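Slide 14.
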Amino acid sequence: MELLAGLRVCAVSHTPAAAYAAWLLGQFGAEVRHVTALDPEGLGAFLAPGAAVDPDPRLDPRPGDLLITDAPVTDAARARLEALARGHLVAWITPFGLDTPWERAPSTSLTRYAAGGWMHQVGDPAREPLAPPGAQDLFVAGLWAALATVAFASRGPGLLDVPVAAALAATTIYDAVAFQYFGRLRGRVAERYAPTQPTIVTLPCADGFIGIHAALHGMWVTLAQLCGHPELVDDPRFASPADRAANIRDLDAYLLPWLARHTRWELYHLLQQHRVCAAALPTVDEVLASPQLAAREAWRTAETPSGRRYRVPGPPARVVAEAGPAPESAGAAAGPWRPGALRVVDLSMGWAGPLVGHVLAALGADVIKIESHTHFDWWRGSRPPGDDPGLELHERSHVFNAVNRGKRGITLDLAHPTGRDLALELISSADVVIENFAAGVLERLGLGWEVLAARNPRLVMLRQPAFGSTGPEAGYVGFGNTIEGMSGLSSLVGYEGGPPTMLANACGDPVSGLIGSLAVLSALRAREHDGRGRLLECAQLEGFLPLVSEALIEFQRTGELPRRRGNRRPGHTPSGVYPAAGDDSWVAIEVETPAQWAALADLVGGPLADPALADAAAREARCDAIDAALAGWTAARPAAETAELLLARGVPAAPVHTEADLLTFAPLDGPGFWVGEEREPVGFHLYPALAIRSGGQYLAAQGPAPRLGEHTAGVLASLGLDAAAIRDLEAAGVTGSRPALRARA
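Slide 15: predicted structure.
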């Protein structure tokens, strides 16, 4: 792709964060000059091909370059970057953000997961919380930095701060919002994703484990049929998600015998062919051998200085088609749009697509979300049998209300000719359309790319299929959990000797949303130069693969499959999560250097004071004894106190924050990451901003998520309909502000 042709980037990377940001921009066509400290025989071969290698890379952009770096926060680095920001756009990835009490706190990926909210809900409730095994936090922060760079590329020089902790908090599944809504912590539920999602689960089968992600009612009905017990749908024990959650072991008594008769790949294909989201939970060698990824030509080859060759992920997005250029006389129609704003029509549901609209809204776009009152966004929630319409359950979804902030909302039945025509008229004056319908649905509705591009040749249209629109698994479906599982990440997360484990944030979704946002901004930049609209495809699995690239490369380098190790990090002893005073309270600690070990041993004393443990290999050999002694010490005091003691001595540590803790965590709370918003009928709550600070302020969408059909009358009036015509549309069922009786996600 050459969408970012002409954009010049200087990358100075100490970690995968800035390197991944630079790689992303290069994949979209930017000219990247890269200096890196990454190992060119390992991850550097993928993320920094052709880069100069320097263990202490210098901050030295050329005139006109945009600068991306993850340089450590020091006085010298800050002075240098602030000076450079007077003439360059600078994106600086920092662990906890500038000008916060944790600005220079020592940290590792493990302690950042703990502080940033990615851990407390993962794992067994009787054991310590779990973190991902690699540097996924840095990849997520790098994605935010790439997005920030393109978003601000035309705004002139300045310093953008992209805190890793904010990047993590912004990609949780809005648990901190849920805590405010419902007043309870989510907790850990072992093989289940969440207490409220009993059919999003990892269960044993004939040859391992299968991930079943049947989040919607229709998927539950199909699952009951496939396991040979269709009567379960009418069983009062399983009537609703809450009922199923209260009777999990009864439910498993039906599922487990069926699963035991099939292999995970048999189950994966069977479930997917019946449109139930599922993941075979492949190991990294199976990911590399994926027929779908092979058919899609999703791999590229990276070569190291010594001649090693690795298969590595390819571009995260594709330009499927182009339109235009538009006639020179074509102007921006006034229509319902806010003057001067980017015009976006959001047809998507769930998280990945709506997150693109939310990001664009936070960047100043006018986003109009189209739903139907008969088939509204499933993230508003299904209507349980016998619900009271007066409760307005569809307006009380914390996830919908979080990711759709800053948008206007209208209802149109796209299956009705008039609804389709009105949507087409609205899209005809839009800049961007976001959609994530099942393959072929928009075409059957008469709103396919060819139709839209013929009316609006400057249109940028984004599609986000789970596995891509081609290949043997093109029709397969996925939620974020599915993408996480099929990428190989779930196979890497878990207790030693235990099963593969889902993360708590369905992280395939936010990653896909951020990739899609970057793709749209890149296509809009290209349109400025050539006037052409484009159809973009961001296959979610392909966009997620870089987050497991460390494991993919390590397997190819050593021939050994990585095993699940809980929170232990090879070569870093101790590294783990330890009990603290209080109920289900934990602290993460990781030692990387001899100086950190010496400081820890001096503070804790006891068995850790043994001089023989100064040797890293000796500590590795006695890791169980060290963990036991350290756990005894940490259990005597609160997690925050323990972390404070260790951080003061230069030892990376952090409390394992609950969603409630995140709301008052100083690096997020003080700089304004949490934004207050009033919304009926749920009232006032705090919602997360984007993980991008400009001028010391986090970017955030303005205004609450729309109520169902809230802006329909105003938008339709601006399209030329009078009040009588609008009333007639509602009477005919084309529009509506209350869920239809048959409405169900």
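Speaker note: The longest strand covers residues 197-205.
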